[in-house]
């Protein structure tokens, strides 16, 4: 292979004649149009920095080979940086409860406890057996010596009362 001197205007003409093809080629490689544009510009700059090329006739092939090598370098660098540190998503939530959320939950718990405490004794007992102890309607009815229908009615009454207390801004 002989070394030939190449002029900047020859490189510019070569690049202009093949710019679209180079960008399309790079899009296939890196899967990103913006990156492909950047790499095509880098290809052009690399050729401009050379005073001579060790190439005889196929300057177009040399242009594509330079673009391909740049795309390989980009992909390798991107894979390495992706393995080392993932970028944080701005929407990524902290897994720990935040102070303001904790305050809201604390207030809701206090209101719920007050709502449960303010229920009539039997209604409160049914709610706790069903929701805390996770007994079935039949088990609650048997334990308290009442009908399942009474358990259902009292449970609905208790839950509505708690719901109203939680949503009432005065409490």
UniProtKB/TrEMBL annotation:
This protein's record includes keyword Transcription: yes
One of the GO BP terms on file: DNA-templated transcription initiation
Residue ranges of every copy of the RNA polymerase sigma factor 70 region 4 type domain listed in the record: 110-162
The entry's keywords: Sigma factor, Transcription, Transcription regulation
Keyword Transcription: yes
GO molecular function: DNA binding; sigma factor activity
Domain RNA polymerase sigma-70 region: 15-80
Record family assignment: Belongs to the sigma-70 factor family. ECF subfamily.
Protein name as annotated: RNA polymerase subunit sigma-24
Protein's organism: Methylomonas denitrificans
């Amino acid at each position: 292979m002989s070394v030939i001197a190449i002029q900047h205007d020859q490189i510019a003409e070569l690049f202009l004649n093949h710019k679209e093809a180079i960008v399309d080629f790079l899009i296939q490689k890196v899967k990103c149009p913006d990156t492909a544009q950047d790499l095509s510009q880098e290809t052009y700059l690399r050729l401009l920095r050379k005073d001579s090329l060790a190439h005889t006739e196929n300057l177009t092939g040399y242009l594509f080979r330079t673009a391909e090598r740049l795309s390989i370098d980009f992909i390798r660098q991107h894979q390495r940086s992706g393995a080392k540190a993932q970028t944080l998503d701005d929407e990524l939530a902290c897994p720990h409860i935040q102070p303001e959320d904790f305050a809201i939950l604390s207030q809701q718990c206090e209101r719920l406890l007050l709502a449960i405490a303010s229920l009539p004794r039997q209604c409160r007992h049914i709610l706790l057996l069903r929701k805390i102890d996770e007994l079935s309607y039949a088990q609650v009815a048997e334990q308290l010596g009442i009908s399942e229908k009474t358990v259902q009615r009292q449970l609905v009454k208790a839950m509505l009362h708690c719901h109203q207390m939680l949503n009432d801004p005065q409490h």
